[in-house]
Design a protein that fits this description.
By secondary structure, the protein is of the alpha/beta class. The chain folds into two domains: about 170 residues, Rossmann fold, CATH 3.40.50.300; about 70 residues, no CATH class. The strands form two sheets. The chain has a six-stranded mixed β-sheet with strand order 6-7-8-3-9-10, sandwiched between helices. Strands 2-1-4-5 form a four-stranded antiparallel β-sheet, with helices on one face. The longest helix has 18 residues. The chain binds adenosine-5'-diphosphate and magnesium ion.
Length: about 260
């Protein structure tokens, strides 16, 4: 069953002194409940726009978005959105614990003390026990991104919408976050939509990969990875199927952006 559906979604942005700029062109996509789906595409193709529309943070110019069958007109309660810039999404004047507690402390019937307890549970889930009293800026980038994940999890979402959450950290930390993300996804039965420009990341983590064309984006390919579950985000990279998919998707991305393909314009 589809938990998140985009139907002929279009987005154009007003352009100064000219016709509107079409960023997304009639994208239809049905995200299955419990799947891990990546949206892969070159920078500037419209990935963040698509995700923000799916999250109810931005209205589409045409088309419909549905979550659990209901049309989306604002952020749906089932979904959380994690921004790429963890540095900008965490509140610097709040401790790590209070950053996570922020997700639940405004709920009716939840005391500040209870919110902090719930925050500690989520911090444990992302292996940050003992860091609750630190401030975000005292932690490494990878740890800050784990705080952002803990805060998203505290809202007990069914759907996590992740906008390039692992792209601002070093390669080793990224692999560590990949493993953590798969573990969280498995344990909590989440539906994840991950936006990325990294082919290996998309293939290693996903059940399906939607490859976008350059702007205005459409879905060029929707590939079922068929890689095993449960899966180790590092070991899977040595399997023939992983290598085959990596080759196929890299090739598609590079061909689409070869000189003369209009990409340089
Ligand atoms: N709020 C906006 N106003 C005008 N243009 C925008 C806005 N947001 C995005 N765009 C444009 O839409 C295109 C797609 O942007 P974006 O979705 O951020 O791409 P990606 O996330 O794939 O890098 C880009 O050309 C970008 O400049
Ligand atoms: Mg983006």
């Amino acid at each position: 069953m589809a938990i998140l559906e985009l139907e002929a979604v279009e987005k154009s942005f007003p352009a100064r002194g000219g016709p509107a700029m079409l960023a997304m062109d009639r994208i239809s996509l049905a995200v299955r409940e419990g799947e891990f789906l990546s949206i892969l595409g070159p920078s500037g193709c419209g990935k963040s726009t698509l995700l923000q529309i799916a999250a109810g943070l931005m209205p589409p110019s045409a088309g419909t978005v549905r979550v659990a069958g209901r049309p989306v007109t604002g952020p749906p309660p089932e979904a959380v959105y994690v921004f790429q810039q963890y540095g900008r999404s965490l509140l610097p004047w709040r401790t790590v614990r209070d950053n996570v507690a922020f997700a639940v402390e405004h709920r009716p019937g939840i005391s500040k003390a209870r919110a902090r307890e719930l925050a500690d549970v989520q911090l444990a889930a992302v292996a940050l026990t003992g860091f609750g009293d630190h401030f975000p800026w005292q932690l490494s980038g990878g740890m800050q991104q784990r705080v952002a994940l803990a805060r998203a999890l505290a809202a007990e979402p069914k759907i996590m919408l992740l906008d390039e959450p692992f792209s601002a950290v070093d390669a080793l930390t990224r692999l560590d976050l990949h493993r953590l993300m798969l573990e969280l996804w498995e344990k909590r039965g989440l539906t994840v939509v991950l936006v990325t420009h990294d082919v290996e990341e998309a293939v290693a983590l996903s059940d399906r990969v939607a490859l976008l064309t350059k702007r205005p984006s459409t879905i060029a390919r929707l590939v079922e990875t068929g890689l095993p579950r449960p899966r180790d985000a590092v070991e899977v990279r040595e399997t023939p199927r992983f290598l085959e998919l990596r080759h196929e998707l890299l090739d598609a991305l590079l061909t689409r952006h070869a000189p003369g393909d209009g990409h340089a314009a």
